[in-house]
Each structure stands twice: as C-alpha cells, then as structure tokens.
Design brief:
4-stranded antiparallel sheet; binds FE2/S2 (inorganic) cluster; 10 strands; 3-stranded antiparallel sheet; mainly beta; Rieske Iron-sulfur Protein; single chain
C-alpha cells in the first residue's frame, strides 16, 4: 500500500525556461515557490524567508564575498547566492543554508523528464480510495453545536 503522503510530481514548466541568475516563480499545491538553476541543477525554494518571512524569491541572485586575508577582497560563487530583499541575508542556493545564521531555506526536490519538462516533488496526501457506501447505517448523528457534551447529573 502506498504511503498517504507520498511524493507527488507537479509540472512547473520547461527546464529551458529557467536560466542561471533568474527565478521562475510558480504556485504549486497552494505554495509559492521560486525555481532556480544553479550549475545545471534545479532548486525549488519556498517563497518565505526563514528570518522574518519576506518573499525571498524576489531577492537578488548573485555571488558573495569569500574568506580572504585582511586587506583583501575576494568575490565568488556567482549565481549561487540568493539575497533576501528585506534585510539582505544571504542563502546558498545549493543547500538553502544561510551564510551567517543556522536557519535555512525550505526547499523541494526537482526532476527533469527526458522531454525537458521540469517537475517539483512535494509530499501530498494521496488521492483517497473511493469510499464504499454503508448500507446498514443511516446518516451520522448531528451534534448540537451549543452542547458541551456534559450530561447534567
Ligand atoms: S526577512 Fe529575509 S533577511 Fe529578514
């Protein structure tokens, strides 16, 4: 028997629609997501910053400063970092990890089919089996919404 919360594939577009440094915003199963391409891999990010809830997929994709000796400045990881539009926190798009905090982005796996169709995989309630109607029971008893359920003694 399949799990009630198996991964389900949701078509979000074509892989060719997503380019390095850009975001394809989509709504999937009632959630706003951003789809990013990082080094040939696709990342699906929940459009919610773990800091204070900004729509993070409206942020900027860029690089970041790298560790360097005092007095020098090194820039790298171009198109691998998502910068939140509200407070500028930086998140690595490969892992979702914030570069300066323990929090991370909520991310979902992706899949590209042979024909180039791009999917996001999300847990979702499987379609329930059709109910078998009962033949021996009448309608469920109705409760009085004002009742406390306590019987006075
Ligand atoms: S809400 Fe994203 S950094 Fe503050």
């Amino acid at each position: 028997m399949a799990s009630a919360f198996a991964l389900r594939r949701h078509r979000v577009g074509r892989a060719d629609d997503v380019h390095d440094g850009t975001c394809l915003q989509v709504d999937v199963a009632g959630r706003s997501l951003g789809i990013f391409r990082v080094g040939g891999q696709f990342r699906a990010v929940l459009n919610h910053c773990p800091h204070e809830g900004a729509p993070i997929c409206r942020g900027t994709v860029r690089g970041t400063t790298l560790p360097s000796v005092p007095g020098t400045f090194r820039w790298g990881r171009e198109n691998e970092i998502l910068v939140c539009p509200w407070h500028g926190w930086e998140f690595a798009l490969d892992s979702g990890q914030c570069l300066t905090d323990r929090r991370r982005l909520a991310m979902f796996p992706t899949e590209v089919a042979d024909d180039g169709t791009l999917y996001v995989l999300m847990r979702g309630q499987a379609t329930p089996e059709p109910a078998i109607p009962s033949t021996d029971a009448g309608p469920a008893p109705r409760r009085n919404p004002e009742s406390t359920g306590i019987t006075p003694s």
